[in-house]
Amino acid sequence: MQVDELQTPALLVERSALRANLDTMSAALPGERLRPHVKAHKCTSLARWQRDNGHPGFTCATIREAEVMARAGLGGDLLLANEVLDARRIGKLIAEGARVTVAVDSRETIAAAAAGGVSEVLIDVNVGLPRCGCPPEKAGELAELARRSGLEVRGVMGYEGHLMLVQSAEDRARMTREAMALLTGAAAQVGGEVISAGGTGTYLANTCATEIQAGSYALMDTAYGELGLPFEQALWLLGTIISVSGGDSGTYAVVDVGLKALGMDHGPPAIPGAQVWFCSDEHTTFAPGALDIRVGDRIRLAPAHVDPTVALHEAMYLVDGDTVAERWPVDMRGW
Ligand code: PLP
Ligand code: MN
Asked: What terms describe the molecular function in GO for this protein (predicted)?
């Protein structure tokens, strides 16, 4: 099948770019040094490529991601890097033979894990991102409570998400060291072997974590593209030009990919060689610049934020240039 035969909007993954991104990351962080985060792609076909690159463990953000991974035979060592109050679905997966470690940051989440049939946890520590995670000085106390509740504490996690898009590599590295000093302090109180942290923006700077939870590196987006990381844009939205107009403000064109097909929290998508004006529900309006754009043409847009973009689509198409190689269901989407 040719890319031109796909209905638009369609999510494309350029195979050579994906391959290069996975290999670059696996060379930097081989084996268990990387615990790929599946929230970025929500696709077990892609996760299999990551496993085949030597990474046995994965990070999940939702119970559903853990369920789909386990039932696809990828549940050998999953980390649910998130707090859950109803842990029974995780307990069920464990009873079926999966290994799932769950993040806890309170008495309530520890009680829920123990009651739900979870056996292994990480103490989630706040390292500066105001999201989940206990204060570093509370980590030891929570670890003790978890052990008293019959849970095995494998160590700590602490996601420095507020630092991922710091533009200067030097500042990012310094701030990561400061954030990770909080996590190593907590790890000393908690015990265990695991220090799980990091993402695409800090995968090299974070030398303190025993495993890095990066996800976006595989497909990439324009927000991460601005950091000059050694990863290529592999994810594209394919659209069809549905209107071209002239007028006082100059010629502009409209493509049938709007904000219902794009995660917009990091801004509008990019069209190489053109200037994007704005997105509305079903449209992106752009100035084509030197591009020769006609109604009916197909063009590619690079999303600004990979995770929420992928989650809007039922499938991604693995392509080699103009040829569709495979259709990969986004099978971990939904809740
Ligand atoms: N770990 C956690 C807990 C996250 O929420 C995220 C993304 O938001 C990541 C790791 C890493 O993601 P990325 O590689 O996309 O920066
Ligand atoms: Mn993201």
From this structure: D-serine ammonia-lyase activity
